[in-house]
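Thread amino acids onto this structure.
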């Protein structure tokens, strides 16, 4: 080969490589907000990133998104956003928030290309969000009877208030949402259903905030939670949205027991949060009930980086399992759900290897799982009480079950689905259903 031909070959190779580089750069710059990025944000981000919702800024328009281009790139590249913590090797979930690699590449290329707007004609039609709600317009709204005065500083014990529903007939709820009024100070809120004749908090005066009395028995299981959990709010926790044919039951004459955990941030405020309900248009075929495998007997030693706690719930009849919701506080490290069938066969349903207590997520199974009578729902959690945990309030402290964020909890919530005519008592077995460790 002559020197001339070698030079031509080298030049050709350089031109070819340059052409590839130019094509890649051109492709990256071709990604626009209106055509490529906006559909990704509508599907995955705008549920929170819009006015009145939990996110600190909106992503409804190009003008709103453009200043956050670089931050969005890093958040999706590192998979910090959207928040989703399930190990992909276990289970399939209908509400999987994780972005596809194609969507990640789209946002990264858009940011790297200077975040161009593109042709306004390419912009998809805006999503018709219901203002103030993530569910359809509620049939009834239960608001706190009066505003709660939040002090500027100090610790606020969990506040409870009993609100009579006034229902004169059974109501089946298909959609339910908890809406905090002051998102900066509402850590979480829950609505429980108290059926007629229940002795739970029987001395509480309706409409008056109070702090529930603590057990005087040191051996009592303070982790015991009311079974009729209607709906709750915490960052990342979605409203209850059930498919047609399924609903939660509020019996005639029931009360709602509203629980709210407030935090202070240096400025006094007032809060009047609310709960919205949408009733099923016809009696459902199946009832949904939120229960839990809970363990409140743990004592996490000071400095322990990997303390294990187990809990289980045994089924007294055949039901379907529809969703999972692990709950811990700042020392929570990881969480796992398993089912152990009567045959002894075991199956891992969900593994959260890096639990993040700032995001309280539900994991909805892609297909409800039939669990025969005698099946055990097992939960295993680990806690990091070491100085290496940045969310650890005090690594020198022995940690017990408690309401405040510097205490701990170990709760494996789950949604069960069963025939609407079946008595709830059939779900439970006669012996204790919580394993203590």
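Threaded sequence (437 positions):
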């Amino acid at each position: 080969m002559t020197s001339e031909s070698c030079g031509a070959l080298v030049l050709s190779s350089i031109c070819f490589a340059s052409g590839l580089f130019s094509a890649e750069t051109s492709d990256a710059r071709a990604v626009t907000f209106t055509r490529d990025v906006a559909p990704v944000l509508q599907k995955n981000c705008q549920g929170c990133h819009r006015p009145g919702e939990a996110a600190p800024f909106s992503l409804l328009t190009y003008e709103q998104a453009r200043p956050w281009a670089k931050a969005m790139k890093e958040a999706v590249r590192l998979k910090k956003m959207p928040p989703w913590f399930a190990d992909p090797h276990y289970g399939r979930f209908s509400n999987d928030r994780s972005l596809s690699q194609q969507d990640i590449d789209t946002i990264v290329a858009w940011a790297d290309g200077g975040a161009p707007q593109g042709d306004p004609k390419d912009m998809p039609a805006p999503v018709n969000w219901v203002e103030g709600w993530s569910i359809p317009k509620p049939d009834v709204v239960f608001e706190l009877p009066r505003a709660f005065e939040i002090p500027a500083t100090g610790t606020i014990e969990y506040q409870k208030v009993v609100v009579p529903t006034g229902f004169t007939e059974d109501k089946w709820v298909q959609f339910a949402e908890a809406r905090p009024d002051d998102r900066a100070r509402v850590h979480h809120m829950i609505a429980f259903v108290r059926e007629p004749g229940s002795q739970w908090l029987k001395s509480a005066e309706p409409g008056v905030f109070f702090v529930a009395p603590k057990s005087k028995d040191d051996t009592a299981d303070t982790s015991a939670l009311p079974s009729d959990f209607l709906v709750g709010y915490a960052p990342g926790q979605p409203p209850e949205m059930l498919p047609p044919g399924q609903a939660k039951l509020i019996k005639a004459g029931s009360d709602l027991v509203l629980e709210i955990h407030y935090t202070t941030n240096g400025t006094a405020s007032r809060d009047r949060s609310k709960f919205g309900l949408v009733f099923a248009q016809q009696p459902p075929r199946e009832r949904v009930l939120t229960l839990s495998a809970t363990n409140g007997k743990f004592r996490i030693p000071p400095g322990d980086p990997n303390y294990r706690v187990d809990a289980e719930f045994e089924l007294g009849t055949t039901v379907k399992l529809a969703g999972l919701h692990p709950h811990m506080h700042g020392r929570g490290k990881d969480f796992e759900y398993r089912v152990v069938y009567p045959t002894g066969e075991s199956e891992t349903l969900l593994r959260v290897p890096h639990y993040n207590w700032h995001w309280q997520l539900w994991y909805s199974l892609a297909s409800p799982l039939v669990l025969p009578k005698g099946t055990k729902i097992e939960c295993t959690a680990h806690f990091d009480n070491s100085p290496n945990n940045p969310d650890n309030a005090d690594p020198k402290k022995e940690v017990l079950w408690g309401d405040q964020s510097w205490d701990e909890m170990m709760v494996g919530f789950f949604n069960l689905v069963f025939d609407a005519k079946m008595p709830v008592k059939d779900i439970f077995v006669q012996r204790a259903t919580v394993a203590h460790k």
